[in-house]
Specification:
Blueprint: H1 3-29, H2 39-42, H3 54-65, H4 69-77, H5 82-109, H6 116-123, H7 126-157, H8 162-180, H9 187-206, E1 214-215, E2 218-219, H10 220-237, H11 244-269, H12 289-296, H13 304-312, H14 324-348, H15 353-359, H16 368-383, H17 387-423, H18 432-449, H19 458-461, H20 465-486, H21 492-519, H22 522-554
Antiparallel strand pairs: 1-2
Helix pairs in contact: 1-5, 1-14, 3-11, 3-14, 3-17, 4-14, 5-13, 5-14, 5-20, 5-21, 6-7, 7-10, 7-17, 7-18, 7-20, 7-22, 8-9, 8-11, 10-17, 10-18, 11-14, 11-16, 11-17, 12-21, 13-20, 14-16, 16-17, 17-18, 20-21, 20-22, 21-22
């Protein structure tokens, strides 16, 4: 299979989905109204609620949802063969992720910018909301703790990525000041920032940075983990226009250019996909394709975390409801393009099938190393760049994706803690300072409590990330279905993806339960049961609400098209 053909099919499918399917969903199902006053205007506070240019907001949303997971998932998932991974990424992005992400954004905008967890109360009930928010908090805990580890390890493995990864913060602060305090138009600051960022990659390649081997008993990766959480805590307290928005926007441009460079290299090099279409010689430790493919390639096709971002930070910055398609649906398309790049890098970036099989000798062999190595080879061949620089470029991409997701994740975790303070009448938790300390403190406690001095404790519960993430996506689609039914609108566009996703995810959870039991991993077994029980409870209550709403509609008690 030609790499060009695979890239063209995937990108073409994404383009058709955005141009036609997203327009239909926006016009007929969500019925987007450009005259509706969004929370960014109605509740503007200059900190979290800030009306934002849609290009800047798209940059924030895209880079927040496109963390390391859409690279890691497909880079592992291709072990079953490139065909299953490719089909799930393309079809999942168009018919699942786009509707889910845009839907969560639309629902939050229509409900004062509430998160999907808080929104559950008005749609289903308080009990479902409380259970839903537990699942959300656990997911954010996993994301923040593990992404810190991923970034820290990349800083150690690819030391040339350190300078450009931190330099982007200075650039973002300058961009935010120019845009919001000096009123400078967006074009020139964007172009200058892009040049500076790519220049910093050359500087990083010439001056690799490393920390001391040990400080107070902490190895270098653990030191980076603490530095990253200190930064994330500070960033989550700043107004979104100071750092979060401009950082994500500039990262979005840089990452979009990075994807363009990668796909341009594919066009010039036309690498051959050496991995098998369906892998019949799987290593012994590889689980069954069904259902594990659909939770392994989590964020590459659909992700519950996206709904948290859509309803957590993005909805508070949306300038016009008409921008839901551009920001929400197109943001998921950007993530799909990243997942497609990961598939190409990990199947066409190896010289031979033998080399690919040697690399993928175990289920955990893929991931970011496969993406950096395979993608670096394609860029080097296609653009005649040094392999080291090509790998630095991809490593910086991975770091920036993970870092922006971590920035947003910590802020979202702070929102959850503040919402708990309101729900349970605990004023001490409603302040930004204390809630941030609680959010970051739990992440650090997990990182170092379960991982010791290495700070790798997040990896202990990471096996549950895929299933928890997909459960959250399925439950979000269920909540959206209830909202749409109450409004008398078509629910098939959310119910069909929801049924498929929940079936595969519950199936995967049961497979994992059996594995944890056999391996004696009783902590994970208990946590898995907790998540499974909470999800079933929320699902049953939501389904009951769905049935009541359907009955009321048949009896004429719910007005069709009611707002």
């Amino acid at each position: 299979m030609s790499g060009i053909v695979l890239a063209a099919l995937g990108l073409g499918g994404f383009a058709l989905g955005y141009v036609f399917y997203s327009r239909y969903i926006g016009d007929r199902v969500f019925q987007l109204d450009p005259d509706f006053e969004t929370p960014a205007h109605a509740q503007e506070d200059g900190v979290d609620f800030v009306p934002t240019n849609r290009w800047v907001l798209w940059g924030h949303h895209f880079t927040s949802v496109a963390g390391a997971a859409p690279i890691v998932g497909p880079a592992i998932g291709v072990i079953w063969g490139w065909v299953p991974a490719f089909l799930w990424v393309t079809l999942g992005t168009v018919f699942f992720a786009g509707v889910h992400d845009a839907g969560a954004l639309w629902a939050s905008v229509r409900n004062r910018g509430e998160s999907i967890g808080a929104l559950t109360e008005s749609v289903v009930g308080k009990r479902a909301r409380n259970l839903f928010m537990i699942v959300i908090f656990l997911l954010l805990l996993m994301v923040n703790a593990v992404f810190a580890i991923i970034i820290a390890q990349l800083f150690v493995d690819v030391r040339s990525s350190v300078i450009p990864a931190w330099f982007v913060i200075a650039v973002a602060l300058a961009i935010g000041w120019l845009l919001y305090r000096r009123g400078v138009p967006l074009l020139w600051p964007s172009l200058i920032a892009l040049v500076l960022l790519y220049g910093s990659m050359f500087v990083g390649a010439m001056y690799p940075v490393s920390l001391p081997e040990q400080v107070l008993g902490l190895q270098e990766p653990a030191q980076w983990v603490l530095i990253l959480f200190a930064y994330a805590a500070l960033a989550s307290l700043l107004p979104v226009w100071v750092l979060l928005q401009p950082r994500d926007y500039i990262n979005g441009i840089q990452l979009f250019v990075g994807l363009a460079i990668f796909f341009g290299a594919v066009l010039l090099a036309n690498p051959t996909v050496v991995a098998p279409a369906f892998n019949t010689g799987l290593p012994d430790d590889v689980p069954p394709l069904i259902p594990l493919l659909f939770v392994t390639i989590a964020c590459g096709a659909i992700s519950g975390f996206h709904g948290l971002v859509s309803s957590g930070t993005t909805s508070k910055q949306l300038n016009s409801e008409a921008d839901v398609r551009f920001v929400g649906y197109l943001g998921s398309v950007g993530e799909g393009a990243l997942a497609l790049a990961a598939i190409l890098a990990c199947t066409a970036g190896f010289a031979t099938l033998t080399e690919w099989e040697a690399f993928y000798s175990t289920f955990a062999a893929g991931g970011i190393p496969a993406f950096v190595q395979g993608g670096g080879a394609i860029i080097s061949e296609g653009l005649r760049l040094p392999v080291h620089f090509a790998e630095t470029l991809l490593a910086v991409m991975a770091v920036l994706f993970a870092a922006t997701t971590m920035d947003t994740g910590v802020r979202l975790q702070r929102y959850i803690v503040q919402e708990w303070g309101v729900i349970y009448d605990l004023p001490v938790l409603t302040g930004r300072g204390i809630s941030t300390l609680v959010a970051v403190g739990t992440c650090i406690a997990l990182a170092f409590g379960a991982g010791g001095g290495a700070g790798t404790g997040g990896l202990v519960i990471w096996p549950l990330f895929g299933t928890t993430n997909q459960l959250l996506a399925g439950l979000t689609l269920l909540i959206l279905s209830v909202i749409l039914m109450k409004l008398g609108r078509g629910t098939v566009y959310t119910l069909v993806p929801m049924v498929f996703l929940l079936f595969m995810t519950f199936f995967a959870l049961l497979v994992q339960l059996a594995d944890f039991w056999r391996q004696g991993q009783y902590f994970l077994l208990g946590l898995d049961l907790l998540i499974l029980g909470a999800a079933i409870w929320v699902g049953l209550e939501a389904v009951a609400t769905l049935r009541r709403t359907w009955a009321e509609r048949k009896e004429g008690k719910v007005a069709v098209g009611a707002e």
